Each structure stands twice: as C-alpha cells, then as structure tokens.
Amino acid sequence: MKNFTAFGNAGLGTSHIASLGSAISLNEAHALFRKAFELQVNLIDTADTYGSGDAERLIARATQDQELKNYFFIVTKAGFRHLALPAFMSPLNQIGKKVLQKIVPQKNFSPQYLECSLHRSLKRLKTDNVGAFVLHEPLAGDYVPDESWRALERIREKGMAQLTGISSGDEQVVSAGIHSGQVQLVETPVSYCVPGSAVILNLCQQNNIPVIANQVFLPLNVISPAILIKIRQLLPAYGLEDTSLREIMIGYAQRKPAVKCVLFGTRKAAHLAHNAAAVNHSYPEPLFDEINHLIHSNQ
C-alpha cells in the first residue's frame, strides 16, 4: 500500500486526456506527467467517467516508472453513470455512456455503486489505494443517502483511499458532507463568477477542510469581450502587462485562505509549466478588487 505525502499547491486535471476527439498518446501523457514531476505538481485529478475509464488507464500506463508511480497524489471521483467495459472494448464506453445517461438517472451515489466504482478505478489505475476518493458533483436535487457518507468511512478503513470528500459547487451538499464527518477534502469552483463560492470557502475554512479549486478560468468563458479588454487594460498599472488573464485567475483562486491547491486541466506540458508558475506568483490585492468591480458592476 502506498503511503501518501501531502499534496502541493498545484494540481493537474485530466478530464480531456482520453476524451473522444481530444485524447493524447501514451508518449504525450508520459511527457505531461514527467513535466508535472519536474515542476513538483504532485496532485492528479481524475474520475471514473473521464474517457469512461480511459483517463485512469492512461495515467497508470504513463506513470509506470517507479519514480513517477510513487510520486503522485491521485484524486478520483465517482457518481456519474457510465459503462465500464474491459480495456479492449473501451472505445464503446464513451458512446454507450451517452446512451445510458439518457435512459436512466445520470447520477448514482448509493454506497454499493460508490464502492464498486472505486474498486474498478483502482484496477484501472493499477494500485490498491488512492490519495483521495470524492463524490462527483452531487447537487441539492440529487439523492445522497446517509449511508453514502458512511460508505466513505468504510473506504478509508479498508485503506482504499487516504482521504474522502466531495467535488461540488452546491453549498447545501458541501455543508451536508462536512457535517457528516466523512469529508476531509472539498473540490469546488473558485472564480469571480461562481455563485456560492464564498460561502463554501468560508465553510471549509471554519472546519479546517482543505479546498482544491477547480474551474478557475470560468470568467474567461462568461465575461463579455468588452469587460475582458478593460481587465487587460488594468494590468500595466501593476507592472503586469506581460501577464495573461489565465495567470490572474489562477492568482485569484490561490489567494483564498481555504484553497490548498489550484487545479488546471491541460493536455500539454508547456501549458502545465505556464500555469504552475502562476500559482507561485504573488499579485497585488488592489488588482483583484478592481477586477471584481469591473465584472460585477456590469452584470
């Protein structure tokens, strides 16, 4: 059984490395994880539904080197229904997943489903335990029985995961998870444009729950081009004229007291290096106040 060390302040998301139409090769995956190792990015975030299991398989194959295999703190998730056919039939999984989710409830957080999903994830990852196992995006309308929270305790007791937690932007579900006593880790969106983000971060800080910040680039997707131009025009006054908005968004998430790790998904080693550097950069507080004013005064 692997003994995990604490994860660092930057994490690599793998939601697209094995998706239809965007999958990377084994050589590209090895280069990506090797770069993560060099940059001391030791957290890998994945899920059983990413590529319908192919992301986990690719992680296992690309980190077979003993140096890499013992380095990464892997977070995997479960809760979305998908097919889990054997590896040689995996191309059918992603097509079948879309069909399956149309004919049955999209999510399943029953204890039996969660434990079975984690067993399958461990098999694909070629390991007997992971750093953390979390519920994948439950919302207030989803049924998460009390037995599911207790299942997380059994998973830790069996040594299948060091930590258990929840990945969600729903403050009601995050609160329920924390008060169950079975959540030691919360993964949640952190950006200017996520309703409830501040409430979840405050709740986690009050309960000493570390947060992995995801969807940190969300403002770039929802803010109008005119506002983005105005934000860029602010940067020279702070000596940041060569800084990208992606770096600023990473800095915004990183400065939150509850945030332990900032997660960014990429398939390219160069992008990983660029983003990892932004996590360790210090940005002036007044800049974030000005950006906040620009965004919310125009909504």
TrEMBL record:
Residues 11-214 form the NADP-dependent oxidoreductase domain. It holds the Pfam family Aldo_ket_red. This is Aldo/keto reductase. Gene3D superfamilies: NADP-dependent oxidoreductase domain. It comes from Mucilaginibacter robiniae.
